[in-house]
Write a structure and sequence with these properties.
Blueprint lengths: L21 H7 L35 H14 L8 E5 L2 H9 L6 E6 L4 H12 L3 E6 L4 H9 L4 E5 L11 H10 L3 E5 L4 H4 L9 E5 L13 E5 L2 H14 L5 H11 L2 H20 L6 E5 L2 E5 L4 H10 L4 E2 L9 E4 L15 E4 L5 H17 L2
Parallel strand pairs: 2-3, 2-4, 4-5, 5-6, 10-11
Antiparallel strand pairs: 1-7, 6-7, 8-9, 9-12, 11-12
Helix pairs in contact: 1-2, 2-9, 3-8, 5-6, 11-12
Bound molecules: pyridoxal-5'-phosphate.
């Protein structure tokens, strides 16, 4: 009997296995339905307009390629698979931040970190100056200080943890619970930790923000942002902010970001272990006065010598002297070269973003730059 003539026993349908590990979710979520000849990847649907009668109609409201990215992010940030977590993608992290800030009523009080990404900090100051919000800055690593600020009614607690570039951390469970008890909406910028190292929704955050330009997409080839929430009303408001403010990402960028996020758990694990290896060596290095590290990020100081910090940034050949972070390639920069950076960030602080290259190559390159920068002084 040939194989084709063999009778095929009908297979009992089995309960699908729901993946629980981020390594599996990152690979399996956001895929088209498995039917014969379906593509494995949600295609790039390049359309500004869709045939009338459906849910989308116009691309400012989203589209299939964007939805695929959103479903992976929602699943990765979701504290449990059954939660109604939704992600709303934007054309940049700042577009996402602005949509979230647009939910604050005029004159609403916003509690925000003294150290935050320069763009967010500048935007908060701008809104305060034009009377749109009342701004109170707090050191988010000072839990008692955050709780004191929360004692007065506030519309929004904005957290960035760890902060850019000082890597300060908030006690998320405590301060987010307090915010919820007091009826203050909360948002956590999770760009540095990513959902692999920290899930703020599980700690009680109302909204999580990512600059998807960074580690989520991971290849320094696009600009995108995303907001994630478990609350259907907040999700609805944020979607409407995106449609009305217009910061919807392109299908091309959403496709690349989905492709990038497939390897997020691997990249974060690799970058984190390399960052630990480098932190140990940097701590033993003469002339380096302080080393901070969290996840894939490091921040080092040169005993006040900003000129040496600049020389190190210019002397590496594997590390790229560039702004931004979270790419497969390791990069570094002295943050105070930017006029908008907070004045309390030390002039000599160099922020390093650790990629996926071989740890020893990264160390040898950095060590050579450290030696050269000493000789040049
Ligand atoms: N949040 C953090 C922590 C960032 O580092 C950045 C950018 O560097 C942003 C938000 C803004 O994101 P984007 O540059 O994608 O607009």
């Amino acid at each position: 009997m040939s194989e084709s003539e063999a009778s095929v026993e009908p297979v009992e349908p089995v309960e699908p296995v729901e993946p629980v590990d981020p390594a599996t979710i990152a690979v399996t979520a956001g895929r088209p339905v498995r039917i014969p000849d379906a593509p494995l990847n949600t295609p790039i649907v390049a359309a500004s307009t869709f045939v009338a009668g459906g849910d989308i109609e116009y691309a400012r409201e989203g589209g299939p390629t964007i939805a695929a990215f959103e479903s992976v992010v929602a699943r990765l940030e979701s504290p449990d698979a059954g939660a109604a977590t939704q992600a709303i993608a934007f054309s940049s992290g700042m577009g996402a931040a602005d949509a979230a800030l647009d939910l604050v009523p005029i004159g609403g009080r916003v509690i925000a970190p003294t150290t935050a990404y320069t763009g967010v900090a500048a935007r908060l100051r701008e809104l305060q100056e034009r009377g749109a919000i009342e701004l109170e800055l707090v050191d988010i690593s000072d839990t008692a200080g955050v709780l004191t600020a929360l004692a007065e009614p506030a519309a929004l607690l904005w957290l960035e943890s760890p902060t850019n570039p000082l890597l300060e951390r908030a006690e998320l469970d405590t301060v987010l619970r307090a915010a919820r008890e007091r009826g203050t909406r909360s948002i956590v910028d999770n760009t540095f930790a990513t959902s692999i190292l920290q899930q703020p929704l599980a700690s009680g955050a109302d909204i999580v923000l990512h600059s998807a330009t960074k580690a989520l997409s991971g290849h320094s080839d696009l600009l995108m942002g995303v907001l994630v929430t478990d609350d259907p009303d907040i999700a609805q408001s944020l979607r409407s902010r995106r449609t009305l403010l217009g910061a919807t990402p392109s299908a091309f960028d959403a496709y690349l970001a989905t492709r990038g996020i497939r390897t997020l758990p691997l990249r974060i694990e690799r970058g984190r272990s390399t960052a630990e290896f480098l932190a140990e060596r940097l701590e033993a290095e003469p002339g380096i006065s302080r080393v901070r590290h969290f996840g894939t990020m490091l921040a080092i100081e040169f005993g006040g010598d900003a000129a040496r910090a600049d020389r190190v940034c210019d002397a590496t050949s594997i590390w790229v002297h560039a702004t931004s972070l979270g790419g497969v390639e390791s990069s570094l920069e002295r943050r105070r070269r930017w006029p908008l950076e907070a004045a309390h960030v030390p002039e000599d602080l160099v922020r390093l973003s650790v990629g996926i290259e071989a740890p020893e190559d990264l160390w040898q390159d950095l060590r050579a730059a450290l030696r050269t920068s000493q000789r040049d002084s």
